[in-house]
Amino acid sequence: MKKILQVRNMEKIYGKRGNITKAIDEISFDVTEGEYIGIMGASGSGKTTLLNCISTIDTITGGSITINDCDVTALSPKKLSAFRREQLGFIFQDFNLLDTLTAFENIALALTIMKCPSGEIATRVQAVAAKLEIEDVLMKYPYQMSGGQKQRVAAARAIVTEPAMILADEPTGALDSKSAKMLLTSFEKMNQEMNATILMVTHDAFTASYCKRILFIKDGRLFHEIDRGLASRKDFFNEIIDVVSLLGGDNSDVL
Hints:
Elements: E1 3-16, E2 19-32, E3 36-40, H1 47-54, E4 62-67, E5 70-71, H2 77-87, E6 88-92, H3 103-113, H4 118-131, H5 147-159, E7 165-169, H6 177-193, E8 198-201, H7 205-208, E9 213-218, E10 221-227, H8 233-247
Parallel strand pairs: 3-8, 3-9, 6-7, 7-8
Antiparallel strand pairs: 1-2, 1-4, 4-5, 9-10
Helix pairs in contact: 3-4, 3-5, 5-6
């Protein structure tokens, strides 16, 4: 399988001289095409910093990040912006939809920026909307949608450009349990039916149990990882809880 992401000896340091915080400390791992990876850890462990660096939102202090055979740490700001737009899809906790655009227009925006033909845009938006079961909200504005619908629109926007990798930061954090489960089912479809490669940060063990592999971060380092394999989601959930207990501290910090 092709390696979509290669992280090597990544470091992220904040501060100067006597007041230094090492948010990421020599982390290395790979993600292959079609994987669905969760990143977990207590507050302040470095998991969001890790995602921000991989997404090119933040810069690293040391090491390298290669995405789809491109060393993103070596790109100029102009090339980095184009790479981010063409190769990465983003899903945030607060949706980040444009209030003045319909769901269709929010999803289509990235394709418009990439100068796709209008006929192709309509076809691709309709196809991804059908996969995520949001066809009935395409003509609605964000204020007319539920939180779960807005997050599935955000997911459609992330996947419609067929990026190399989708990066999700606490995507279920603002959703009720029913909406969260619907979104996670949509993520499963994206992964299984569209072969989407997903890297997701989450505090929630239930959310993480939908993933195929979990990386646990502690004090800026890779503490442990587990692979779901053929285990049921319930068994994988219990395995996640076991690792959480090994991390130490209050379980609520991670869950």
